[in-house]
Amino acid sequence: MTDGLPSTLEAIDVRANVAAKAGNVYAQYTVVITCPFTQARWSCRKRYSAFWQLRETFRVIHAHAPASPLAPLLHALLATPFPSKHLTPTRARVMGERAMLFQNFLLQLLHLRNACWVNLAASPSLALPAARYVALIADFLGIYDVPMLEIRPTTRAILDEACAICLDYMHATDLVDGRHVVQLPCRHVYHQRCVGQWLRTKRTCPLCRDPTTQITGLLLA
């Protein structure tokens, strides 16, 4: 990720409700993650214990490898405020507070995922632990085969390029926040409005069919 730019682009919404199973009443948290480029959504339902277990897994990993180059990322995740256990977890106030803290925790979790994707590609020595972290996060959230997202500054030379779908040239007004012009790993550039629907269901470039493992939003530096 580029310093000073958002490292987590996915929008996350966590909502709490009271559920029951086999006579057991408990608090349940519905997580909805939305991709800003494709508007694709992923959702899952988790209980407090599932969040706690995931955090505990990363705590143990961090304790066993405190000097790892990935340790600062784990430290940031573990330093994110996390809700404590509660005697009345189904109270509305408790569920609301937990939902907010879980949302912040998940933002940091996705930041870890994106940073691990970078290390998978750039650092062979970190590929094994990075792949493990990505797998843990994917299993928890149920998000598989989801491209890495990032925003990257670009130069005014991008204004001489045309969208590979509509063939219109890029305009400076499209490049103010990194969410309206996207570049795929094959280097083809598109308007988000043109390619978003395609990428919602396919993991390839619509022009050359190269795999799309990353979607980069461009903004003028």
UniProtKB/TrEMBL annotation:
Q: Does the keyword Transmembrane apply?
A: no
Q: Single Gene Ontology BP term? A: ubiquitin-dependent protein catabolic process
> Which Pfam families did the record assign?
PX, zf-RING_2
Q: Which UniProt keywords apply?
A: Metal-binding, Zinc, Zinc-finger
List the InterPro entries hit by this protein, alphabetically: E3_ubiquitin-ligase_domain, PX_dom, PX_dom_sf, Znf_RING, Znf_RING/FYVE/PHD
- Keyword Lyase attributed: no
Domain called RING-type: residue spans: 163-209
Q: Name one GO molecular function term.
A: ubiquitin protein ligase activity
Gene3D superfamilies listed in its UniProt record = Phox-like domain, Zinc/RING finger domain, C3HC4 (zinc finger)
Q: Which PANTHER family match?
A: GB|AAD18119.1-RELATED (PTHR22765:SF434), RING FINGER AND PROTEASE ASSOCIATED DOMAIN-CONTAINING (PTHR22765)
Protein name per Swiss-Prot or TrEMBL? RING-type domain-containing protein
